[in-house]
Amino acid sequence: MSYKYALTAITCPLMKSRTIIEFTEFSTEIVIRAKCSGGESNVFGITRHWDNPNGFDTSIIFDTREVTGKIFASMVSEYPYAGCKSKDLAKYLRDELQKVYDAQLDRMTGGDK
What we know:
There is one protein chain. With about 110 residues, the protein is α/β, with parallel strands linked by helices. Helices cover about 35% and strands about 30% of the residues. The protein contains 3 helices and 5 strands; from the N terminus they run βββαβαβα. It has a 5-stranded mixed β-sheet with strand order 4-1-2-3-5, with helices on both faces. Strand 2 (about 20-25) and strand 3 form a beta hairpin. It starts with a strand and ends with a helix. The mean pLDDT is about 90.
């Protein structure tokens, strides 16, 4: 199977109600990071709201990573808040990807679309 995306839920045992999302698009090497309310299941739920309306999107490989409180605190403070519900998180990631695509297009065309 060939994956298009990697989705990682980064958690800390001391902060159960916060999770960091790391989403990577392999073809462009774009990485989007954000924080969300809830845990790993909220992040994993993104796979149900991506491209496959009938179930989990198998183009996404999902992983979890646990970090120390100090590392988590430094990471969580620098990332924007993406929401709580999986559907909202998927929309946030799509919107952020589109912003990156638009910025790349602007650079290539000098702002003339």
